[in-house]
Amino acid sequence: MAQTIIEKIIAAHSGDDVFPGATVWLELDVRAARDFGGANVVKNFDRHYTSMPVADAGKTFFTFDCVVPAKDIPYANNQQLCREFAARQGIKVYDVDAGIGSHVLMEEGLARPGGTVVNTDSHMNIVGAIGCLGQGMGDADIAFAFRTGRTWLEVPPSVKVVLKGKYKWPTTAKDVALAMLREFGSSGLLGKAVELYGPAAEVLSVEERITVASMATEMGAIAIFVPPSEEVLAWCEGTAGVEVGGVYADEDASYEATYELDVDGLEPLVACPPSPADVKAVSEVVGKEINSAFFGSCTNGRIDDFRAVGRLMSGRPVAAGVMAYAVPATRRVYGAMLVEGLTAELFGDGFVVSNAGCGGCAQGQIGMTGKDEVQVSTSNRNFPGKQGAGETYLCSPVTAAASALMGTITDPREVA
Amino acid sequence: MARTTVIEGRVWPVVDASGTYLNDVDTDQIYHNAYIAVTDVDEMGRYAFGNLAGWGDFPTKAEPGDILVVGANFGAGSSRQHAVDCFRTLGVAGVVGISFGAIYKRNAVNAGWPLVECPDLLKLELAAGDVLRVNFKTGELENRTRGKLAAARPFSRVQMDVYLAGDLFAYGSSLGGKSAGRLR
């Protein structure tokens, strides 16, 4: 029977019949836990599998990224608990220097096209960017996966989204993600596996695919898959150090629905608090005074994102009274910023440039907001209390940079 | 462990001042990330709904056996198991909602905590304190206070198996220790 991308990946990792609605056992290529939830995984494991080994230590990882290095004792304790468990079990730890786990797993070639990955990270489905099936899970799920190497999964229905048209700088892939949120809302794709097609999807770079795929969770989707291009496969081969092949849908695969979304001439967008789906044109909210700007997260923490920020700033300083925070997604990105001079450039513009990690997203140490503080952020969530007590406006790195430059929410076309 | 497949309890509809169900209540509103470092399930109950405006006193008001009733896309957001476990600590018997975030649903299934999806929830005309009967096998819902009925999705196969076993770990053990073989 003809299969969609997710159905093919599942079928290659399961002995069960695969069709939408079926519940199958899924073999996992990678099972990981972060400092967020990781200690709960360890406690669950030790409670239920006392003195037992994990199924395969070589496929099991910790990826610390939430609060790195630990800023308080509870997090420090939890990280240490994970390290001690890892040492007992022979598990590799990507420690507090490594950066965002979902990105590290891609950079290390552990998350690959056609593979299966789980982690205690609701944005683990971001690896759909390279045609890999990732799922975020809770700590009981992950403890079970550590022990058994597998998980149960209900095969989701697949839908197609065809992105038509062309847009140009300073509109970016983040604006495409926000356009999808505007179109589908926070639950319009609930429980669906989404495949992205069309001219505006095919041209996306690896980093742009990561940005779009990272907001699948905000749309309620199981994942957004972008069929790997030659560039994506080459990137993966470069990171994995082995030949990889993409997994593509059969031509006659059946989809629950096909949607077209025209992004031709798309203008810069912003998601207003309190929901990632409250999307407006930046031009509708220009002039709103901001107190801070956050650059980073699994959505926009890649080197191209910081290059875009540097390009927009062009040596101009952050507005007086505005705090700007740059947090690279991974150590590799951090290193590239140093080598390229971006760190010095952004520092010179007035940015706080930190080590790699999640930043403010889970009570991290960079970018929390105070009451009534207004922040523009390149992250993916602006739910009440998510990034602090203030109000968060989600936008692209260039829109955030334009706003940091002017001190008010600013259409980047005005200052690019 | 023999577990019942029909429960009856007093409901807490998660609604706004006008009585409309709140949609997209995310995991940070259910269980704020300020308390994410907590690993002891017994401690989690006190933080339930701590970041949802008007619901901060839920932990002191909820009684064991009560049933939570929620709108669409409840539990959107992060993967934290805490957002399920905090209600289990309080003895909340289960949750009935229009729809749920995918990870939230998994976490509930794995914890053996009853979660029932009912797109036609409004037919029940539930008000705070009404008594709701929920049949996990058939999906039948009945507002016992007002005599209103609605059809929900019955538990899926995995959901029922995990629930009857107790939780995911007990279910895994029931499969022979290493969870090999096909799902029943």
User: How many separate structural domains of chain A?
Assistant: 3
Shape-level CATH architecture of chain B: Alpha-Beta Barrel
Kindly report the spatial arrangement of strands forming the biggest sheet of chain A. 4-3-2-5-6
Elements of chain B, N to C (H/E)? EHHHEHEHEEEEHH
Name the pair of protein chains with the most residues at their interface, and give those residue counts.
Answer: A-B, 52 and 43 residues
CATH top level assignment of chain B: Alpha Beta
Detailed description of the structure:
The complex is a heterodimer of chains A (416) and B (184). Helix content of chain A is 34%, strand content 19%. Chain A contains 16 helices and 18 strands. Chain A has a 5-stranded parallel beta sheet, with helices on both faces. Chain A has a 5-stranded parallel beta sheet with strand order 16-15-14-17-18. Chain A has a 4-stranded parallel beta sheet with strand order 10-9-8-11. Chain A is globular, with a radius of gyration of 20 Å. The two termini of chain B are 19 Å apart. The C terminus of chain B is likely disordered. Chain B has 7 helices and 7 strands; from the N terminus they run E-H-H-H-E-H-E-H-E-E-E-E-H-H. By secondary structure, chain B is an alpha/beta fold. Chain B is globular, with a radius of gyration of 16 Å. Chain B has one domain: Alpha-Beta Barrel (Aconitase, domain 4), CATH 3.20.19. In chain B, helix 6 packs across helix 7. At the A-B interface, strand 1, helix 2, helix 3, helix 5 and strand 7 of A face helix 5 and helix 7 of B.
